[in-house]
């Protein structure tokens, strides 16, 4: 139990640090003329939803990862590699999309992130059992975010 609490706390720190780093690259991206002039999906939520959702998603994901890390056994190296790759993809999306203003490359990054989280979910669903519910908000949000990015790519 102590290991799981420590692991969850560590993943909370890592996940929110990644969001902060990615946020640094957003800069004035959301309020920039480039972003404001893009055709956005009709289902694009208000700006505050992004921050609230990412907070909720990362809390759930941290609990998922904390439990997975403690129970990964012989799969620890694989868990570590997939976790680091999702972390890097998550951080990379903001500079690619907002800083480089590249909806096409942003779409590639977010599809890679979605596939990464999907693979983690499938690979460890038996090991995680009920804990799999804690990664579902991440999957759902990535599907929505991917659709928003895809819409911008297709209609701009």
Describe this structure in words.
This protein has 156 residues and is mostly helical. It has a single domain, classed as Up-down Bundle (Ferritin), CATH 1.20.1260.100. It has 7 helices and no strands.
Q: What are the SSEs and their pairings?
A:
Elements: H1 2-26, H2 33-36, H3 47-71, H4 76-99, H5 103-123, H6 125-128, H7 136-155
Helix pairs in contact: 1-3, 1-4, 4-5, 5-7
Summary tags:
156 residues; mainly alpha; Ferritin; 79% helix; 0% strand; elongated
Give the topology string: H per helix, E per strand. Answer: HHHHHHH
The total count of helices amounts to: 7
**Beta fraction of the residues?**
under 5%
Distance between the termini: 50 Å
Tell me the radius of gyration: 16 Å
- Residues in helix, %: over 70%
Integer tally of domains: 1
The main β sheet shows up as: none
Give the CATH H-level superfamily.
TspO/MBR protein
Give the overall shape. Answer: elongated
Outline the low-pLDDT stretches.
none
- Mean pLDDT score, rounded? 94
How many DSSP E strands?
Answer: 0
- Indicate the CATH topology: Ferritin
Overall CATH class = Mainly Alpha
- CATH architecture name: Up-down Bundle
Structural class by SSE content: mainly alpha
């Amino acid at each position: 139990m102590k290991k799981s609490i420590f692991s969850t706390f560590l993943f909370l720190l890592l996940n929110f640090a990644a969001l902060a780093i990615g946020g640094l690259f957003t800069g004035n991206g959301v309020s920039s003329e480039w972003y404001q002039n893009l055709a956005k999906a009709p289902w694009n939520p208000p700006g505050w939803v992004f921050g609230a959702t990412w907070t909720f998603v990362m809390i759930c994901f941290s609990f998922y990862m904390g439990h997975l890390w403690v129970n990964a056994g012989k799969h620890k190296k694989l868990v570590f590699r997939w976790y680091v790759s999702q972390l890097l993809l998550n951080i990379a999306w903001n500079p690619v999309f907002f800083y480089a203003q590249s909806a096409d490359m942003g779409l590639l990054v977010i599809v890679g992130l979605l596939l990464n989280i999907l693979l983690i979910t499938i690979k460890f669903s038996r090991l995680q059992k009920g804990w799999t519910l804690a990664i579902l908000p991440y999957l759902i949000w990535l599907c929505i975010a991917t659709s928003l990015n895809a819409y911008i790519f297709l209609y701009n």
